[in-house]
Amino acid sequence: MSRRHPPAEGLPDYARLDEAGEAAAAARRMEARAAEPASAALFEALVRPLLPGVRRVLEVGCGSGALARRVAAASDAEVLATDKSEGMLAVAAARGGRVAFQRWAAPDEPVPTGEFDLILSSVVVPYLEPSAAEALVVDLAARLRPGGRLVFIEQDLQTDALHFPDPELRTRVFAKDRRPAPRHLALGLRALLRAAGLALDPPCAHLWITHDHGPYLQDLLGAMARDATAAGRITEAERGHWESELAALAARGDFAYSLLYHRVGGVRPAALSTPR
Ligand SMILES: C[S@@+](CC[C@H](N)C(=O)[O-])C[C@H]1O[C@@H](n2cnc3c(N)ncnc32)[C@H](O)[C@@H]1O
User: Fold this and answer.
1) Domain residue ranges of the chain, discontinuous segments joined by +
2) Whose CA is nearest to atom 17 of ligand 1?
3) Of 140, 128, 122, nearest to 186 (Cα)?
C-alpha cells in the first residue's frame, strides 16, 4: 500500500526507494541529517525521555537506522528496526550498532512478532495511503504491552522555514501549496491513536534548527531548486542565484533553516478494546 502521489519535489521516492533505485542516495541524505547537531537535540528532547524502563523497542520505517542506533546507545533495550526498503536496510545493517534489522513493508506481511514497550516511527506516515496509516496504527497498538507507548515523530510541513533575502524566489522554490498534504500527517495522527484505544500523551514538539549549510541542506535545498527549475517555476539563472546566495549567507553566518517536529504518542491501557 504505497502513496498515490508522485514524490514531492526535492525528495527521493520514499514510498518505493528500491524500485526507483534511490535507496543509497536517500540513505546518504538521512545520515547527513542525523549527523547534524539539531538531530541529536531532537533525540534528547523527544525520544530520550521515553526510554527509562523500556525493555523492547520496535521502529517502523527506520531508514538508515540513525534513530534506532541512538535508542540502542541510550538504553539497555532490545531494539528491532524495520523498513520496507532492502537498500535502506543494507545501509543500516552496515552501520552496526546494537540493533536487529528486519524487512517489513508495514502494515503488510511479514510482521515482527512479540510485544513491545515502545514503538517508534518517524516520517513514514506521509508515504502511506490514509487507509494504510489507519491499519498501521491499529496493528501497532495491538503490539504494545499494557502500559506500552506508540509514538510518531513527525515533521510539520507548514513550518519549514529558510531565511532567504528574496522571499519571492524562496516561495517559488519551496512551492508549499503544491505538496500533497496527507490527512494523517503529524497532529492528524492523534485521532487514529485515540480510535485505536490509546490514552493520548500531551502535545509535545521540538524545533529542528541549524545555521549550518552542511551536506544535508546543500543536498535538500539544491534538489528542491533543481526540481523547481525542471517544473519551470525558476530559471537557470535564478537557480544559480539561489545557490550562490545560500553560500553567501552561510559565509556570513546568517544561514538558517528550521522545521518543527511533533511527538504524537499514546499509551496502551491494561485492556485494549479495539479489534486486532
Ligand atoms: C523519510 S524516510 C524516514 C526514515 C527515518 N525514519 C528517518 O526519520 O530518518 C521514510 C522511510 O520509510 C520507509 N517506508 C516507506 N513506506 C514504508 C512502509 N510501508 N513500511 C515500512 N517502511 C516504509 C522508506 O523506505 C524510508 O526508509
Assistant:
1) 14-155+179-207+261-267
2) 84
3) 122
Spatial separation of the C-alpha atoms in residues 13 and 23, rounded to whole Å: 9
Protein residues with CB under 6 Å of any ligand 1 atom: 14-15, 17, 30, 60-63, 67, 83-85, 88, 104-106, 122-124, 127-128
Q: For the structural domain made of 14-155+179-207+261-267, what CATH number should be given?
A: 3.40.50.150
pTM comes to: 0.94
Q: State which ligand 1 atom lies nearest to the alpha carbon of 132.
A: 19
- With the CA atoms of 217, 223, 228 and 234 taken in that order, what torsion angle do they form, in degrees rounded to the nearest 10? 70
Name the β-bridge partners of 232: none
For residue 257, the SS3 value is: strand
How far does the centroid of ligand 1 lie from the alpha carbon of residue 83, in Å? 6
For residue 88, the one-letter residue type is M
Out of 47, 69, 84, give the residue to mutate to test ligand 1, the one with the largest number of ligand atoms within 8 Å of its CB: 84
pLDDT in single tens digits along all 276 residues of the chain:
444 567 788 899 999 999 999 999 999 999 999 999 999 999 999 999 999 999 999 999 999 999 999 999 999 999 999 999 999 999 999 997 899 999 999 888 667 788 999 999 999 999 999 999 999 999 999 999 999 999 999 999 889 999 999 999 999 999 876 666 677 788 999 999 999 999 999 999 999 999 999 999 999 999 999 999 999 999 999 999 999 999 999 999 999 999 999 999 999 998 776 544
Query: What ligand 1 atom has the least distance to the C-alpha of 105?
Result: 20
